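Form 7-S
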Amino acid sequence: MHLIPRAFIRHCSALFAGIALAAAVAAQTFPSKPISMIVAFPPGGGSDVLGRAVGKGMADVFGQPIIVENVVGVGGSLGVLKASNAQPDGYTLLAGSPLELIYTPLGVAAAKNKPEDMRLAALVGHTPIAIVVRKDLPVNTLDEFVAFAKKADKPLSYGSTGMGSLYHLMAEKALQTAGARGLHAPYNGMAPYLKDLMGGVLDFAVVPLVGPVIGAIENGQIKALAVASSQPLARLPKLPLASATKGFEDYQFSIWIGVVASAKTPESQMAAVHKATYTALGNPEIRKIIETAGSTVAEPMTLAQLDAFYKKETVTATAIAKSIKLQPQ
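Output:
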């Protein structure tokens, strides 16, 4: 039997106590240096606009700079991977959405991130989504679209931000509900497929109702048939709810943007980011930027509520992908 020297035990105890003390001090002083806020899409998009807005507000709360970095590629997966692979200490955050966090791993074989790699620290805003068509497609309502799609002699073409993206799955869900066929054209970002929709290259699309899309609707460059929301939009009050059309009663989706961190981030740092984000969202200047971009500022949620929300979003996305027999490509 080998006895462990008391001096060694005292040394280990002191070492562990020192590590615990250092961790506690780090938590109390967080943040003590600039924070990186990764955006997984190009500048100017919803994640970028809202990420920069809330980052500005959080920087004021923390007294430390928030440096926004656009890391683009593989449907947003590269940005998520950079955030999830960073030291899980709260100093690397992601202005994330369900597009790259949940949907890209479902439809893009090259995506190596998984939803469970990350954790929501706060929700920033929600953006409603609508079904729109080219301006000369002979339909003006969702009912007419369903009838037209059923009898069309060829599949209706539609664009999305990529295989397995929310816009792809929502379009397929609409076609499935209509009992019609579609031809999917994946694009690298929303701007290119919005341009082709306005140019008549595509028949329809599912799009977020953000600045350029609302402008195209109001200018008559595309036609909006219905919004996938539970209530009408103040900006487009005459746009019907998709849920009012038979078969589309559960067709309610929105894009959310949140502040996200590695799932391994300590609870104390998560709590600090959570508090700072919602404090920032209480700033009228920050709220105005978010609302001007076409989004609704999210109501505060606890970390436990956010965990449940994120899990539910993941389950819903997986069910939709399974219902249309989506295979990663």
